[in-house]
Request: fold
Amino acid sequence: MRIRKRTIAAWGASALLAALALGLLFSCGAPPAGEGEFTLIADSLGEVPMHPDALKLDNLAFAFDGSMETRWTTVAHMEPGFFVELRFDRPREVAGLVLNAKPVPNDFPRGFVVEVSRDGSDWEEAAAGGPDATKKGVTTINFDHPREVRHVLVTLNKAAPYWWSIYELEVKYAE
Ligand SMILES: [Ca+2]
Reply:
């Protein structure tokens, strides 16, 4: 089953301005870890109830700004179907991902599926996992084998009474 994805295009301008403003506030001078490599282009937040904190935290850039002071989060309890999608600027050989939620160690995915695509239309499953993938809030995802991809989609398949948070998202390149 393919869940419908919300792209950043619909609300990109305001989100981008908010990201820039908050980025300036929280910047510690380090360049964004994902700059020039990948962009988080979509999340599930259009499909979850809004919370007052959402305006502060519904910010994909926080997951790869190089700072463990900032996070992206769902601001809602985890539900199956919540997702984060990455897009690379060019095809990259990817072996896995690390999702770091160490400061809020309960905010990790209890169950997830990772799908990858070269073109954004044909998708293959590259990894799946449960709570064992996480140690102290750090979720390590290893693909079944390195794959040349431009899109990576992480989707939850289990609920939990915690928000899903990513302080930093690290891509494990195979090249
Ligand atoms: Ca961050």
